[in-house]
From TrEMBL:
<feature type="domain" description="Phosphomannose isomerase type I catalytic">
    <location>
        <begin position="11"/>
        <end position="117"/>
    </location>
</feature>
<keyword id="KW-0862">Zinc</keyword>
<feature type="binding site">
    <location>
        <position position="122"/>
    </location>
    <ligand>
        <name>Zn(2+)</name>
    </ligand>
</feature>
<dbReference type="GO" id="GO:0008270">
    <property type="term" value="F:zinc ion binding"/>
</dbReference>
<dbReference type="GO" id="GO:0004476">
    <property type="term" value="F:mannose-6-phosphate isomerase activity"/>
</dbReference>
<protein>
    <recommendedName>
        <fullName>Phosphohexomutase</fullName>
    </recommendedName>
</protein>
<keyword id="KW-0479">Metal-binding</keyword>
<feature type="binding site">
    <location>
        <position position="180"/>
    </location>
    <ligand>
        <name>Zn(2+)</name>
    </ligand>
</feature>
<feature type="binding site">
    <location>
        <position position="105"/>
    </location>
    <ligand>
        <name>Zn(2+)</name>
    </ligand>
</feature>
<dbReference type="InterPro" id="IPR046457">
    <property type="entry name" value="PMI_typeI_cat"/>
</dbReference>
<dbReference type="InterPro" id="IPR051804">
    <property type="entry name" value="Carb_Metab_Reg_Kinase/Isom"/>
</dbReference>
<keyword id="KW-0413">Isomerase</keyword>
<feature type="active site">
    <location>
        <position position="200"/>
    </location>
</feature>
<dbReference type="GO" id="GO:0005975">
    <property type="term" value="P:carbohydrate metabolic process"/>
</dbReference>
<dbReference type="InterPro" id="IPR011051">
    <property type="entry name" value="RmlC_Cupin_sf"/>
</dbReference>
<dbReference type="Pfam" id="PF21621">
    <property type="entry name" value="MPI_cupin_dom"/>
</dbReference>
<dbReference type="Pfam" id="PF20511">
    <property type="entry name" value="PMI_typeI_cat"/>
</dbReference>
């Protein structure tokens, strides 16, 4: 059977978190019902959390089902050749009402050996930030395992780590091994490898509603951490009606598209494309039909969709694998 592809949207997978809030509803119009919703998984094939198509003829089918049936057409010839029938990325929006735990993600090699998983290289686009919002990213100066363990014992870890004030539009690229935490008071678009492997190393001694602290993974994190100072902030251009490169790494390429009018897009079938609407409204015109999107929407365009128009006034993140 030959599929007639069109821009695909998916039901958000909403996650309650101890640090979550209500901004996914008030800022991004997500259908949350809890006052501690921390994440909306927009596109996922993580086991147990596979995205389901919400629109059109393929509605009700899962992302893994359509990849299984049409791998080249959905993923693209080059992505399929490299990853097989795995969707290699995970897309999320996060609302941090409180600080997230300080954590680190293992690289591909370690994650494969320990968890049979991809590593977790990721990027953050800050969509909204309160005046005093900050993140933790890496060490202030080059450190080592001994100094790090000593600081955990003495509860002085925060003195070793670099914290950075953030504002809307800031982008941070976190390679595996970077110790990090999203701070309170921000909404973030997150693009990452398909992985849910997180080593939590410090959680501010918080307790949940039952009075329990969350599990820490200090030992597992020890050889996953990059103890050197890292530069995570990404400068990028904002030329209107163009794809402005923000991050170009082996796992994904993310461009910033300030749309004001119309852009004709032509592809070669090598990779799927994902658009995350960061602000404003836009539409995709494909084969005579128009599909409309607003702030907080995420849309997957199968690789077989190789010619279409973007129209409107919006800020968009465009993600491919190149």
């Amino acid at each position: 059977m030959k599929a007639e592809f069109y821009p695909l949207q998916f039901d958000p997978i909403l996650k309650e978190r101890i640090w979550g809030g209500e901004k996914l509803k008030t800022v991004l119009n997500k259908p949350i019902v809890s006052k501690i919703t921390g994440e909306s998984w927009e596109l996922s094939t993580v086991e147990g959390d596979v995205s389901i198509i919400a629109n059109g003829d393929l509605k009700g089918k899962s992302l893994t089902e359509i990849i299984e049936q049409w791998p080249n057409e959905v993923l693209g010839t080059e992505v399929y050749a490299r990853f097989g029938k795995q969707f290699p990325l995970l897309f999320k929006f996060l609302d941090a009402r409180e600080d997230l735990s300080i954590q680190v993600h293992p690289n591909d090699e370690l994650a494969k050996k320990r968890h049979n998983s991809f590593g977790k290289t990721e990027m953050w686009y800050i969509m909204q930030a309160d005046d005093d919002a900050r993140i933790i990213v890496g060490f202030k100066e080059n450190s080592n395992a001994k100094e790090y363990l000593e600081s955990l014992k003495n509860k002085t870890l925060l003195t070793l780590l670099d914290d950075v004030k953030v504002k809307a539009g800031d982008v941070f690229f976190l390679e595996t091994g970077t110790v990090h935490a999203i701070g309170a008071g921000m909404v973030v678009a997150e693009i990452q490898q398909t992985s849910d492997i997180t080593y939590r190393i410090y959680d501010f001694d918080r307790k949940d509603a039952q009075g329990n602290t969350r599990e820490l993974h200090v030992d597992l994190a020890l050889d996953a951490i990059n103890y050197n100072k890292v530069d995570t902030f990404k400068e990028y251009t904002k030329v209107v009606n163009q794809s402005n490169s923000i991050v170009d790494c082996p796992y994904f390429t993310t461009n910033f598209v300030p749309l004001d009018g119309e852009i004709e897009v032509k592809k070669e079938g090598k990779t799927f494309t994902v658009y995350m609407c960061i602000d404003g409204n836009f539409e995709i015109e494909y084969k005579g039909s128009k599909y409309h999107y607003k702030k907080g929407d995420t849309v997957l365009l199968a690789a077989a969709m190789n010619s279409y128009l973007l129209k409107g006034k919006a800020s968009i993140l465009e993600v491919v694998i190149s």
